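Appendix B, record 7
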Amino acid sequence: MFKQKFQKRREEPKDGFESKLLDLTRVTRVTRGGKRFKFRAVMVVGDKKGKVGLGVAKGLDVAKAVEKATKKAKKNVKVVPISNDTISYQTEAKFGAAKVLLKPQKKGRGLVAGGTVRVICTLAGIKNISSKILSRSRNKLNNAKATILALEKLKLNERLKTKKEKP
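C-alpha cells (predicted):
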C-alpha cells in the first residue's frame, strides 16, 4: 500500500512542469596545465498551459549540469498567450545568427515545426502552429532563444493591444 502511494507521488512533477533536455555538449577550457572539461546542458521546462522556460548551465558531470539548467529554466519561466491552441498572429525573432518565424494555424493542422521549435511549442502547450527557421544556423541554443524571443514578442504586443482598447 505504502509503495503504491509513494510511486504515484514520485511520477507526478511537484510543480507541474515537464522538462526536456534540448542539448548536452562537452566544453573545454584550455589552460597552461592542460584541458579542463565541463558539460553544458540546455533544458526547456513547460507546463503545457502557456508557461515555458529555458535554462543553460555547466557542471563537472552531466547530472549536475542538467540539475542546474533545470533550476535556471524554472526561474526563467515566461507566459505565452495562447488562443484556440495556437498563437494570435505571425511573429518573427532573431538571436545571434538564428532567425525563427512562427505562424498561427487552424485547428487540426498540428504542430508543423522541427527540432528546438517543436520541443518549446509542445512544452508551452501550443498545438497548432507552423514554423520555419529562416537562418542556416544549426545551433540549438540560439534557435531556442530566438523561439523564446518570438513568443515573448506576442506577449508584449498583446499588452499593447489591451492598452489601446482601454481608452
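Remarks on this record: The chain has a mean pLDDT of 88. Residues 140-165 form the longest helix (26 residues).
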